[in-house]
Amino acid sequence: MDTESPLGDATLAADLLDDYDADPAPIDDGTLPGDRFLDRELSWLAFNQRVLELAEDPALPLLERANFLAIFASNLDEFFMVRVAGLKRRIDTGLAVPTNVGRAPLDVLADISERAHELQERHARAFRDLVKPDLDAAGIHIEGWNDLDESDREVMQEAFQTQIFPVLMPLAVDPAHPFPYISGLSLNLSIRVRNPKTGKVEFARLKVPQNLPRFVQLPTKGQLRYIPLEDLIANHLGDLFPGMEVLEHHEFRVTRNEDVVIEEDETENLLQALEKELLRRRFGSPIRLEISDDMDDVTLGLLMQELRITTQEVYRLPAPLDLAGLFEITRLDRPELKYPRRVPTTSVALQPSEPTEAPDIFASISRGDILVHHPYESFATSVQTFLEQAAADPHVLAIKQTLYRTSGDSPIVEALIAAAEAGKAVLALVEIKARFDEQANISWARKLEKAGVHVVYGLVGLKTHCKLALVVRQEGGTLKHYSHIGTGNYNPKTSRIYEDLGLFTADDIVGKDLTRLFNELSGYAIEKKFKRLLVAPLHLRAGLLKRIDAEADAARAGRPSGIRIKVNSMVDEAIIDALYRASQAGVPVDVWVRGICSLRPGVAGLSENIRVRSILGRYLEHSRIFSFLNDGDPQVYIGSADMMHRNLDRRVEALVRLVKPEHLAETDALFELALDPGTSAWHLGPDGEWTRHNRDEQGKPLRDLQDEVWRQVSSRRRGGIR
């Protein structure tokens, strides 16, 4: 069983969190109601509530529920670090804060605070009342110091003295010792001590070491037993303040503004400017203070004063704080408490015709377009093999690749390095501004450059988010293009838990499109048109609007029409308004969205023909699909773009049109399954409320989409639909 979290790493919130810096003002042409958009901040919090509902679901494996608790906590941290931080920054500096629901920025901030308080309290209750008792019943105990007997305490005393005490650094606060810097997301103890000789009361802060296990294992006694590190430390404070009387100790945690803002037009060296900004990010202003619910008013007042935190930004919660630490517990080797282990299959189209033959990915792609579906179909035997064979193939002359996020031990990067060392021309477009992966991408960029890879960082003012790989191969005296366009990153680690699609094609039209696009990204070309691609920021929104309007025209003329869209986020006002108008024309519109949705479905006279569904589960639904009926000649696109301002205006994104009838049928079947009333999903109502439908009228569980897709893909054999 993989230990990665399907919804809880740095890419998740970054996927869903837009920023405020260049969002266009709300669109209002007077023909649509002013209250037609749902608030995107509250919609994001509703997404995280759906994550929490998975943690609360007793039908899910226990350690997966603990995992979803940790995911919720990690997601919310990033929401505050990026979205709330960006909103506060613009309010504090007097900049305009566009909002598509027409409310004042301070009202938006108040609503976020109210909803976030409710969710954090619910999250704490879910751990205390639901998950922790079930962990206890399964023989996994998270104990408190008061639960330990004398023998346990003796063992923990020894562990504290030998493994923990040497790395602790208590910091006094007095006229000679100013209030210390509190690093973002660190867990801390506030401590008040009294000098018995003078009676003077002093304050100290102690940071809980982040390089030690969050949960310290206790003597087994027939079951797994742990104590939170902060609880163990708190009960040995006398060792840290000898001769002093410990009066109070409480847990607290600060979230800081950790978004990165770079004025690219004003810097000569983007790499150096980003490194400087990353250093500054560590010292961003505080935006949330979490405290244990037993903290006294004197200590709280001191923290609020020193951190310049308002009452609205204080979150009083039962210990333990920072339940993202539960990720450690979920790594336990208890397979009966996790999702069943699954091994991806190799796409039938990539398998050799004879079992004894070695796979030849170029021969397979030459036979026709291949659509792969991760994690059901293996990334290692498709995308990774594609690049590794290209690196080793003497007939390959050039490889061009975009890298937005990749893993720490990436075979993709190693393949590019091997290709460069073999004398091939290799271009890697590394997006060093990928949020929360900036430092890792800087390291990869330098490693690639040292190996002789041509590394570029994209276009000024734009992030390069498209997922593209192009291989140029010499065959029979001519050059042939082999292309891969995906919906997910070139990351072998996340490919096991992210649901994504990828197209392999030897179509010369796509190859030439990618050649022109890479030239634009690495040089000064300005490409005005592509044939099988839709590319942002110049053409993608306009291309989608054109196709949405065509469906509306068909409906008005009495011809068949239909729109189906699968995305992570649906925020862009122009796209939403076009969907409203299509609905008013009679077009059936289905939106399958994982996270944020500002579209309000089911409103009479506006969107009664629009349905919105959301599916969360074992895998992160990450693919983007855009399907248009097109008078019976379906046009279906897959790619990297969500319907957010940043994707359509401030990023280089690419969608590719699927043309093979089998691939159109496959995406259509995926929509049919997701939208079927018998499939478990959340349904969005016109009031913005999401309702989970996971049982039928008799109380029986509905079909799990991801289980069903896995079953279908695993049952494929050579000669089947692929």
TrEMBL record:
**Keyword Ion transport (UniProt):** no
Q: Where is the active site?
A: 465 (phosphohistidine intermediate)
Gene Ontology cellular-component annotations: polyphosphate kinase complex
Binding positions for ATP per the UniProt entry: 75, 498, 594, 622
Q: Pfam family of this protein, just one?
A: PP_kinase_N
Instruction: List each copy of the Polyphosphate kinase middle domain by range.
Output: 152-329
Q: What is known about its processing and modification? A: An intermediate of this reaction is the autophosphorylated ppk in which a phosphate is covalently linked to a histidine residue through a N-P bond.
Check the record and name the SUPFAM superfamilies matching this protein.
Phospholipase D/nuclease, PHP14-like, PPK N-terminal domain-like
Which residues are in the Polyphosphate kinase N-terminal domain?
Answer: 37-142
Which keywords are on file for this protein? ATP-binding, Kinase, Magnesium, Metal-binding, Nucleotide-binding, Phosphoprotein, Transferase
Q: What is the E.C. number?
A: 2.7.4.1
Biological role: Catalyzes the reversible transfer of the terminal phosphate of ATP to form a long-chain polyphosphate (polyP).
NCBIfam families per record: poly_P_kin (TIGR03705), PRK05443.1-1 (NF003917), PRK05443.1-2 (NF003918), PRK05443.2-2 (NF003921), PRK05443.2-3 (NF003922)
How is this protein named in the record? Polyphosphate kinase
Q: What is the lineage of its organism?
A: Bacteria, Bacillati, Actinomycetota, Actinomycetes, Micrococcales
Gene for this chain: ppk
